[in-house]
Amino acid sequence: MKIKIGIVDDHQLFLKSLALMLNSFDNCEVILDALSGAELQQKLTAPNQEQPDIMLLDVNMPGTDGVVTAKWLHTNYPAIKVSALSMNDSDKSIISMLQAGCCAYLLKDMNPTDLETALEEIYKKGYYNADASNINFRRLIIAKQEEEKLNITEKEQRFLQYACSDMTYKQIAGEMNLSERTIDGYREALFAKLNVQSRVGLAMEAIRRGIVRI
Amino acid sequence: MKIKIGIVDDHQLFLKSLALMLNSFDNCEVILDALSGAELQQKLTAPNQEQPDIMLLDVNMPGTDGVVTAKWLHTNYPAIKVSALSMNDSDKSIISMLQAGCCAYLLKDMNPTDLETALEEIYKKGYYNADASNINFRRLIIAKQEEEKLNITEKEQRFLQYACSDMTYKQIAGEMNLSERTIDGYREALFAKLNVQSRVGLAMEAIRRGIVRI
DNA sequence: CATACATACCGTATAAATCCCGTATTTTAT
DNA sequence: ATAAAATACGGGATTTATACGGTATGTATG
After folding, report:
1. Residue A48: left if φ>0, alpha if ψ -120 to 50, beta else—which one?
2. Which domains does chain B have, with CATH numbers?
C-alpha cells in the first residue's frame, strides 16, 4: 500500500513535476493536486474523492494561502497529515503553519532523497522535524511572540498604514476624522512599541516587520 | 535526436523534479543541472561536458543570479539558447534577462504541455514569445526606461539608503561628511525625481521601486 | 463605589524638515 | 578656452514633527 499524497502549489510546473517525482518513489502515489486552496477544498469535498494520507501545502499562494488552507484541513480533515512546503527558511509563517496544524515544514531546496525519507517519517510517526535543515525554531517562536505582544490596536494599525505614505500628520488626522493630538498619541505609542525615534524609522520598522505592506 | 537541455535553479526539489518531467517529454533530454550560476560555470567548463541546446535559468538565485549567469552564457557560449524561468510576471528583471541575451521568458506557473511547445519553438526558431502568458512587455520596458532615466547618482543613492533609516538629516550629513545644505540638495533632487513631497514618501518610493532594500 | 485603564483631546515648546534665496568650485561639453 | 552643468555649501523663513504636561470621558473590574 503506497502513501497517498496530495499537493497544493500555485506554480503548475512545480506542482506537476513534483507529482511526477513523488510517483517515481517506490512507496508514494499522488492522488490529488490543486493550484490553490480553493481548488483543493473543491476537489476534496467532491463525492468519491479519495483522501490523501499526507497533504503538501505551499505557504505562499495568492487567494486562500497556506495558513488558511492548513487550518481548514486540520479542522475538516484531521486525519490528513498536513506538511508545509516553502521556498525559504526565513519565512515568517513557519510558526503560523505549525500552529495551523502542520506536522512538518519542508523546504523546496531539500533533495529528493530527503523528501522521500521525510514523507515516510510523516506517514509512520505523524511528524517530521528537519534538524538537518537549519530552521531555528526557537528564534522564530520568540520573534512571533514579540510581534504578538506588541499588541497594536486597530486604530494604530490604520494610522500606521497612513504613516507609511506621503501624507502629513494633519492630513492623516483629517482622513481618520480625529484631532492632530489624538494621532499624536498613536505615534508616541507606536514609537515606543517599535522602538524608533522618527516617523521614517516607524515606517521602516512597520514594513520590515510586515505590519504594513506597500 | 532529442533537444539537450540544461537547468539552473537553487531549489533542488524543483530542479530535480523538473528534470524528471523534461526527460518524460518525447523530444527532450536534460544533460546538465546546477543549483547556482557558479555551479553551472564549473560544470560547463569541465572537460568532456556536452553543451546543451537550451539552458533554463532561474532568475532569483542567491550568489550569481540569473542576469549575471545569462550574460556569462551569452558571451562564452553564444550557441546555447538561454531562457529565463521565473516565478512571477511582475518580476522586474524580465527586461534585464532579455537584455542579457535570453531568447524567452517562461513562467513557473505555465502548464507542462505549453512548456514542451515552448522548448520546441525555442529550439527551432531560436526564440519564444508567450503571448498567451500575460506578460506586458511594453509596460515593463517603459517601467525600466523610466527607472533608468531617473539617473540617480551614487551620492544620491547613498543618501537614499540613509534616508530610509531612523537618522536625522544632521546625522546623515555627519555620516556622509557633507554639509546639511548639500544633502538638502540631494533631498530636493530626489523629491523631484521620485515625485514625492516628504521624506517618508521618499523612503516609501525608494523601497517600492527597489532602489533601496531593507 | 472607587480605581484603573484606554481613548480622545488641548496648549505649548523645541527640534527637524522643507523651501527659497544665493554663491563658489569642479566637471563636462562644445 | 569658455559656456553649461553638476556639485557643494550658506543664511534664514516657514511648516511639520516631536516631546511633555495636563484634562475629560467611557468602560471594565474588584
Report:
1. left
2. 3-141 (3.40.50.2300), 151-208 (1.10.10.10)
